[in-house]
Amino acid sequence: MKVIVDAKNIKKVYGTKGNVYTAIEGIDLTVQEGQYIGIMGPSGAGKSTLLNILATIDQPTSGDVVIDGTSIVHMNEEQLSVFRREKLGFIFQDYNLLDTLTVRENILLPLALAKTKIKELERRVEEVADIFGISPILDKYPYQISGGQKQRTATSRALVAKPSLILADEPTGALDSKSATDLLESLKGLSEHNRATILMVTHDAFAASYCQKVVFIKDGKLFTELVKGKLPRKEFFNKILDVLSVLGGGASDVI
Amino acid sequence: MTLFSLAWKNMKGSFSNYLIYFVSMVFSMIVYYTFVSLQYSEQIQGSIMLSEFMSFMFMAASAVLLLFVAIFLLYSNSFFTRSRKREIGLYSMLGLRKKSIARMMFYENLLMGVLALVIGIVFGALISKFFSMILIKLMGTSAKVDFVPSIEAIVQTVIVFMLIILFTSFQGARLIYRFKLIELFHAEKKGEQAPLVSPIITFIGVSLLAFSYWLIVRPFPEELTGNYVVGNYGMALIALSVGTHLFFRSATVFLLMLSQKNKSRYYRGTNFIGTSQLLYRIRGNARTFSLIALLSAVTISFFGATYSGYYGNEISAKEDVPFTYTHLSGGQSFDSEIEKLINEDTAHPVQAQLDIPVLVMEGQLSFELDYLTSPIKIIAASTFNQASRALDRDVTVHLSGQQAAVVKPRLTDFRQASFEGQHLTLSESKKNSKLQLVQLVEGSVLPFDYPDFFVIVSDEWFKQLAKQTTTLTYKAYEVEDEKTTEAVSSKLATLIDGDFQVHSSFYTVYKEGKEGSAMNLFVFGFLGLVFLAATGSVIYFKQLTEAGEAKPNYEILRKIGVDNKVIRSMLHKQTRFVFGLPLLVGILHSTVVLYFISNFMSNLIGVNMVVPMLIAMVAFIGIYAGYYVLTVTTYYRIVCR
């Protein structure tokens, strides 16, 4: 099976001499094609830092990250931009939609940037909007639609260019439980049927229970990991809760 | 913590937010103070011939300036408070009483205003010296400028701005009462809806513009009355303003929508992001665009026109007073005394000296001419030709018998066709004195004198006519480098007591004209500069506020994979549109206005306005380009930090 993410011994240190804060202390992570992986941990454990490094928005202090066969550590700004455009798709907690664009335009953004032909572009937008059930609202503006619809728009945008890796940062954080469930089901479906590779940072054990594997981080290090295997989702959910209670500091984080 | 200290901390804490507003306040104050202090400057007033005219000009201009500065300040104030609605809402949420918030807003604005006023006056004092030097240089006087701040100017500036500051402070204090808490929080949330494109409105806008252009450029009617001027140009102004606004409101949307038609181009790269951003704010932008287009038009037009006056002063002075010195003969000894005086000035050697005998008679034209033709001044053909040559002109006449030529009266627009084949009957003449008009020539040889009706007759006829009436003899001198003949001109003025017809020197007219037009140039140049700076600043502020709001959008774009180079080129495109469109319309407007002024002026004074107009436009575009670069750079810094 193809390896999409191969991160080796990543370290991230913030600050200068005398006032150093280590966010990540040597994490290894491997993600294979079609995997749906959750990253959990208490606040300040380094989840977001890890995600930012994989998203090439932040650079590790040391260590190597290879995504889809390419090392991203020594790329310059321009190469990184192209790389983000072609290989990565992002879903953020606060949707990050451009409020001046319609839903349709928001979705086609990555394709337009890649200068895709208009026919192909329109076809792909229709296709992905269909999957997420937002075809009727394609010509609305972000301020005219609900949070759940916004997040599905953002997800469509992340997927439309068929990226090698989808990175999701608390995608359900601002959604009600119905919208959250819909979104999680869709993501699960994508990984199962379309072999999309998804890496999701979350606080929410319920969200994490949809993943095939959950990686726990504490104090910048890998704490443990759980594989769902053949377990029913409910049981997997309970196992995650168990780990979280051991992990500590996060009783409030769980809910 | 007292309210006063909270207000103070507020300002200190987020000074960068306040900076834009603060700078525009200081700017207005500097400009106003500078102008008023020039108005009160005794040194400048004492050094020129036309001080009454000057006070009037300055007074009118300072009224315009005051109005403009007040509007500009209110505009920036509303801009500033709008960006703070959320903060005020937060105070209210935290339980601060409305009264306290209102008081805080009041103190804060007052404090800022007073601080700006002090800075404005200090800088104004420095800058006004610089501007008085420019004014004096333009007028060509040699007055010394001392560095003495004028008390009257300070008092006037303080009074005017304290009133404005108090007003804006009350406005700020009322903010919390005017809006519901929920409105304060959602101040900038809602997207502006793009106005509908209505072909009818676009059509009305364009037709109004065309109509106003037509009103401006159409030729004068036979009889030019005040009513016509006010009616015609007043209507043109209204049509132009309304047309401009409608044009920007609908035609820009139309243009932007048109660019969306070609989908494969529109959705390629970042084109559609920039366009949608422009469309998103089009309603607010349309207002700013029209304001800027109109102000640019006014600035370019006035500056071009006054610069032409300044530029054409020498030509028009030369037309008014063709020879360096002209005086009416006052007897042998008197004439030779003057001749001696002129010859003694070795720095200005005499190039030509001649006598111009003139007969003054009454007469009747064989047709109706819209000009006073009595008395008629008659010159002999040979004298005219001689004078023409002395002045380096190539206009000569060849007349025989009863043929006569009319010298085109200055400040008129008569054509040869109106005179050709007509007759002039001299009434005092005993014999048959019907003169046959054959020609209209340009180029008077004597100083301007209303009615400026000179007729050239053949030499033989001149001799005959001379027997019937007294001959006035003018002594004319043309010297080298006549623009610097101040010393002799003033000596002559004391020597010869009399008005323009008795004696006139080129220098006096040239100097007066230069001062007057320099004053015009300075005043309009100054106002133009202020308008320009203000319009530039309005766009600049607007774009910066927008940059602050759009920052998250650019962050998203970067995360998605748009690199900084692309973002920069996007900003260039957007800013080019925002700056370019109003400028283009402004230039179009001013071209029409200047076309009209140039027709008007070249008829009157024979000044070619192309060069000065081009200079005005290029200067305008140059300064504008500076603002453009500044805007793009700052915008980029804000969104890519």
Distance between the termini of chain B: 35 Å
Portion of residues within helices of chain B:
55-70%
User: What class, by secondary structure content of chain A?
Assistant: alpha/beta
Please indicate the count of domains of chain A.
1
- Determine and state the CATH class of chain A: Alpha Beta
Proportion of residues in extended strands of chain A: 15-25%
Largest interface, counted with CB-CB under 8 A?
A-B, 33 and 29 residues
Pfam families (chain B): FtsX
Subcellular location (chain B): Cell membrane
Protein name (chain B): Putative ABC transport system permease protein
Organism (chain B): Paenibacillus catalpae
Plain-language structure description:
The complex is a heterodimer of chains A (255) and B (641). Chain A has helices at 47-54, 77-87, 103-113, 118-131, 147-160, 177-193, 205-208, 233-247, 251-254, and strands at 3-14, 21-32, 36-40, 62-67, 70-71, 88-91, 165-169, 198-201, 213-218, 221-227. Chain A is α/β, with parallel strands linked by helices. Chain A has a single domain, classed as Rossmann fold, CATH 3.40.50. In chain A, strand 4 (62-67) and strand 5 form a beta hairpin. Chain A starts with a strand and ends with a helix. Residues 250-255 of chain A have low confidence and may be disordered. Among the domains of chain B are: 1-190, no CATH class; 323-510, no CATH class. Chain B has helices at 3-13, 15-40, 42-46, 51-82, 85-93, 98-139, 151-178, 181-185, 199-217, 226-261, 263-266, 271-280, 282-311, 313-320, 332-344, 381-390, 416-419, 459-468, 486-495, 506-560, 564-605, 610-639; strands spanning 325-328, 350-361, 363-365, 376-380, 403-407, 423-426, 434-441, 454-457, 471-479, 503-505. In chain B, helix 1 packs across helix 6 (98-139), helix 2 packs across helix 6 and helix 20 (506-560) packs parallel to helix 22 (610-639). Chain B: Residues 60-178, 526-637 form the ABC3 transporter permease C-terminal domain. Chain B: It is found in: Cell membrane.
